[in-house]
Amino acid sequence: MATTFDELAREVLRFRDEREWGRFHTPKNLAMGLGIEAGELAELFLWKDDAEIAEALRDPAYREKVAHELADVQVYLLVLAHASGIALDDAVRAKMTLNAQKYPVEKARGNAKKYDEL
Amino acid sequence: MATTFDELAREVLRFRDEREWGRFHTPKNLAMGLGIEAGELAELFLWKDDAEIAEALRDPAYREKVAHELADVQVYLLVLAHASGIALDDAVRAKMTLNAQKYPVEKARGNAKKYDEL
Amino acid sequence: MATTFDELAREVLRFRDEREWGRFHTPKNLAMGLGIEAGELAELFLWKDDAEIAEALRDPAYREKVAHELADVQVYLLVLAHASGIALDDAVRAKMTLNAQKYPVEKARGNAKKYDEL
Amino acid sequence: MATTFDELAREVLRFRDEREWGRFHTPKNLAMGLGIEAGELAELFLWKDDAEIAEALRDPAYREKVAHELADVQVYLLVLAHASGIALDDAVRAKMTLNAQKYPVEKARGNAKKYDEL
């Protein structure tokens, strides 16, 4: 996790550009692809309860499947951020600043309610 | 994009832990949340064609909405990777190595077919 | 639930056509919209465990929210099936016939494994 | 499409109950499953533009794939509606009544904007 977002984005875009897939990579297609990969990721957790998932994650073969699906989501996210002219790290920090206002520590602590129900 | 995955994960987890949300953050809930955020991201592109999206992305207010939704997906991804004991940067590289075998440059160039149809 | 799929599809398409939304309703957009609505539906269950959801479903206001999101998914499904020239009822029966082969009662009983792991 | 929602729900639930899958079918799992199936459906349209999809839908093998994925979404929807005590046909009509207020014909005609932007 010592890689910067910039470095990993560059590696992913090089992989993509070597295959000349750029013209398929419109924001709309990438957002659709990201949703599909999110579904494949979720499939690994469906039908299992939390204890079964914790147990399964100790198995390297299962954890590798999870890693592959996490990677697919991350790849789409990096390419979509690039296509949208958005820096992911800045975006996360800006969103956390916003969320800190919507979910002040004192009100949100230990509480899964949405901000408009707090 | 000069931030490392480790640094951003630490910031996100600190935000989370200050609010004591960790006990809700099972891999299953996080994967479900990630899919929901992917849907909110996609909503920004629905009903628009590629030219309209390119145009809309020049508007800072629209681009900020996209940034917020990209951020939400990235946050869930960082927390889910952490909960699963997986390093996102390593996972992306391992997946690209695998994809390089499934999609060799000569066969995949300019082609959006799935590897099993190449 | 005494309505036929045909009747409900006709009502939905009439609503759509009165608003001249047909030209936006390509299969691709409809599939994307369906995924977005599936996310909004899932959001009603996120952060709640099964007992909390069972409890919440006794509240008419919450059940109405669930009903609205189920309806949105059903609407997209009816319109997408129409746009694809597919009869939903036939499609479900054909898929169940297929699933009956993949998941024979004796092997699948009480078992959430995927057919290729049975 | 002459089947009623009730009839198809009964067939799907019989299939399910013969396999004793009911205990896995909590609303939360079903909503997650529905999202996953929505992703598999979307995958059939990803990377294709509208003209390519229209062309592909003329191929019976492709249309069958679409039908299978539509069916999977419909199955989850029927079972989730049942688990939530909601009649899908009533829910669709109630939602259309609501949408008719949010999207009056005169304002919404030919317009893909969200109601709060109309």
From TrEMBL, chains A, B, C, D:
Superkingdom per UniProt: Bacteria
Annotated GO molecular function terms are: dCTP diphosphatase activity
| TM spans (from-to) | none
Q: Which GO terms describe its biological process?
A: dCTP catabolic process; DNA protection
A single Pfam family it belongs to is: MazG-like
Organism lineage reads as: Bacteria, Pseudomonadati, Myxococcota, Polyangia, Polyangiales
Under what name is this protein listed? Nucleotide pyrophosphohydrolase
Q: Which organism is it from?
A: Sandaracinus amylolyticus
Q: Which GO terms describe its cellular component?
A: cytosol
InterPro entries for the chain: dCTP_Pyrophosphatase, DCTPP
Stretches assigned to coiled coil: none
